Amino acid sequence: MLRNYLKIAFRNLMRRKLFSLINILGLSVGIAFSLLIGVYIIQEKQVNADLKNPDQQFIVKSDWKVKEMGLDITTVAPLPKAMKEEYPHLVSNYYRFNPVTNVVSAGDKHFKENIAIGDTTLVSMYGFPLLHGNTEQAFRDNNSAVITESMAIKLFGKTDVLNERISIAATTGEQQDYLVSAVMKDISKNSVTGLFGETYSVFVPTIGNRYYPGGDPAVSWQSIYEIGLLELRPGVTPASMEKPFEQVLAKYADETTRANLTVKLAPVRDYYLKDNNNAVNRVIVTLSLVALFIISMAVINFININIGTSTYRLKEIGLRKVFGGARSQLVMQYLTEAMVLTLISGFLSVIFYEALRPFFSQVLQTSLLPCWQFSWVQIGFFVLLLLAVGLLAGIYPALVLSAVRISKAVKGKMDDSRGGMILRKSLLVVQFSLAILVFICGLTISSQVSYIFNKDLGYNKEQVLIVTAFPKQWDSTGVGRMMAVREGLKQVPSVKAASLTFEIPDRKPPNAASLQGEGMDQPVLIPALNVDENFGKTLGLNLSAGTFFNDKGAHIPGQVVINESAAKAFGWTAETAIGKTLKLPPSNVLTVKGVVKDFNYSSFNEEIGPLAFFHIEDALSYRFFAIKVVGDDMTAAINSVKSKWKELLPNAPFDYFFMDDKFASLYASELRLKKATSLATVLNLFIVFMGVFGIISFTIARRNREIAVRKVLGADIKSILLLFIKEYAWLILLANVIAWPLAYWFAHQWLQQYVYRVQQNLTPFFVAGLSVFGIAVVLIGLLSMKPATSNPVRNLRAE
């Protein structure tokens, strides 16, 4: 029986090649897009799945009553260790680390690397696989280092490097030596070694570490900038840890910390998805909906075309029923045909997947697996997708056509109550509505992204080269050396300005200063940046009043620059703020030297707030050189700066990026979404109009006699074209009525995540509606032109 079903299925596919091609092409595109998005989502969902006991792992986060008191991602340094010691029946393990970036050397090789200074529980707690070393005791002592496979090859050209010596530059100006005790396999993306989107390649113990002048930062209860992670005992929930956290803080922390800090536990398992204001989850949900819309379009095309062309097979159905064919057999016949067509489409979709995979990998900023490397999860998803599409595409036409009464079927007519024109037009309205909905949302996303990249940020990010300042020696000697390097870089002809700074405008500064203005009873916590007097000029900050420190001469201690929001927080205007004093505990008094206009120093998700600038020679800490370069040849400018750098700092790596690239990285998810929705809009319209092409084609073929009669009775080409255009124009109008409110709601919800956003207007709605209408009119006109201009006598004779 199955063989007979398959034989009839292939015969019908070959008999109506045009409609079969439309169905196959539409389903292939829909399945390929869904497969691409599905593989991407599966890969994103599997981040952290390779960790040991990920469901029991948690990141210790801080909820401060006054947000400027600390970071939410860090915790009081000794807290995780104290929780394990005080509550061993609740906590099975802990890991803390301090993420730093500095020069790692082996012999005459020097590289800028991300380093994690942390506890020695790293490997055993998370089960990271080792190529070399003891998994139970990866760190032999406090002078041991664990490095990644890639780092071993970079430093030594091989992976078996146990007991090889490496050295790490410290902010004290010294080099601390370590012996490699383990080499870790390069591991996949996770929320432990890749918590901030960075990959750490060197891991060293925090005990005995001399990186910071003040010693081990994991010891002091006043240290609140340590990353902390806990592994809870099976069955222990985050809620059951609330009281223990309060008790430990009450026992060890100071009064200010106890009064303002609430400890929260964030699951490691889904932290990657929920981090950065649910950025990855939002992309996943949006792309899932888009993929669902596209595959729905293809399925609707199949249903529409199958029911529309069903009159060609009604007599076959009638005869089969007359000769005793059961309805279940007819249903199986049509389902078999649908599955055959879906399997052919599935084969083509794999080809499309491989062809589009590099492009989608670039758009989604990931590496999508080739189909031959699919895991059982991806294979299962693909098989289920094919089965679902085949079933959904075939079940309705099968039930409708198999239910036609014998008396109607043998005459080649379909029951008026089933299928027919109303169903086809309803499905077309659904398709047009979805296409317009995706189109409008895509235009809104594109508009917001353009707004972000074109808005006046209050500073100039163009042609600003950011070079990591090495070596990091955070004392007066180290700062003095870097200031001399800054002056040397300014001698390069292509360098317009150069500045030594601790921060660049890519985040809200993590450090805050408690500043008390004249006449104020209480201090105000203000986020603070450590910069030099050239910072404003280099980044093009606009001054409202005063000067940016002493920008015409030598450094004058005790000066501060604030922004307009900070002046307002102190109850001043920009003009009245100049010369005012601010008290900084314990006994420092600072004079306001200048007020800069507010600028976007963080993402558009956060409102611009108060900001204070301390001079780098007072703060004695730095991380970057910001260098304003001029000229059209950026490659030559970079090479000139690099050459000067090697002359000034021969043993320091030249690691750089451009400020505009860094700015773009803040909105990576938005850029991915913009590209994906733009492509989805094109695919949506392609599938919709392929379906319209198929439906109009067989509609016109069935109405050739009617057109011929109209022409004989005097109808001209224009009236015949308008006849078909009007028939579909009201469907598009109805689709707009349905899609516009839905699109407004979706776009409104998406825009709410931004403090600074575009205002919705009618432009995207009219653009989408008129574009769909215009394309439909052109397509209908082209298809109607042939019968409208053909000889009516020939058509009547054929009838």
UniProtKB/TrEMBL annotation:
Keywords in alphabetical order: Cell membrane, Membrane, Transmembrane, Transmembrane helix
Main location: membrane
Source organism superkingdom: Bacteria
PANTHER family associated with the record: ABC-TYPE MACROLIDE FAMILY EXPORT SYSTEM PERMEASE COMPONENT 2, MEMBRANE COMPONENT OF TRANSPORTER-RELATED
Protein name: ABC transporter permease
Keyword match Kinase: no
Subcellular location: Cell membrane
Membrane topology: Multi-pass membrane protein
Bilayer-spanning residue ranges: 21-42, 283-305, 334-356, 376-406, 427-445, 679-701, 728-746, 766-785
Pfam entry (one): FtsX
Residue intervals of the ABC3 transporter permease C-terminal domain: 289-401, 680-790
UniProt keyword annotation of Transmembrane present: yes
Residue ranges of every copy of the MacB-like periplasmic core domain listed in the record: 20-243, 435-642
InterPro entries: ABC3_permease_C, MacB_PCD, Macrolide_Exporter_MacB
